[in-house]
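Before a colleague's protein record goes any further, I have to sign it off. Thanks in advance; the entry in question is below:
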Amino acid sequence: MSAGELKFGAVVGSDGVWCELLNRTQGAGLRPALFLDRDGVVVEEVHYLHRVEDTRLVPGASDVIGHANRAGVPVVVVTNQSGIGRGTYGWPEFAAVQETMLEALNDAGAFVNAVYACPFHEDGIAPWRVAEHPDRKPSPGMLNRAASRLALDLSASWIIGDRAGDVGAGLNAGLTGAMHVASGHGNVEGERAQALDLSSESFRVLTGNSIADARGQIPLLA
């Protein structure tokens, strides 16, 4: 089944990108969304996370996501998965981690509307060895896919990430802003400076220690 034939469910399309549509968006017409990186933002950073026993929610993640749910703001996870591209683990391991994350969110009264994952990397193995793939952040492909499938207003949407590449994806997709968090890779030297360098009058870049700081700063979560 190709990505274009997707119903609600999960599939790796013929183009190699994971798409899982989980919950329909509330209301009619275009809606602004909250995009989230996964590792270091929703779940704690673990080098090439692929074991369910290593999967733990970042403190505050369920609270922020649940708040967005109650406000009718679609929540979309967009994650680069170079571990798949490099052959470190496969889609079954990714799916198991994914299910663990979703169950933990559900237990806390929160949910995401969709998840997109890109395995392509310039140092990957065939068929994942692709430099500057249009779906690998900072390219905006996964965000554009979500906008098309879920009728999202990208110009009013935000993204939270722990890498400058996450912020760059938001900029390249035409989002209104991003929050760079220090959790995960966010505390690596140079990451925050690179993220802040992307800020402009038309694209706001906020900062926080973790996703827990998003409430009160990102207008969608006011």
Notes: The longest helix spans residues 91-107. Helices lie at 61-70, 82-85, 91-107, 141-150, 164-172, 191-196. DSSP finds six helices and eight strands in the chain.
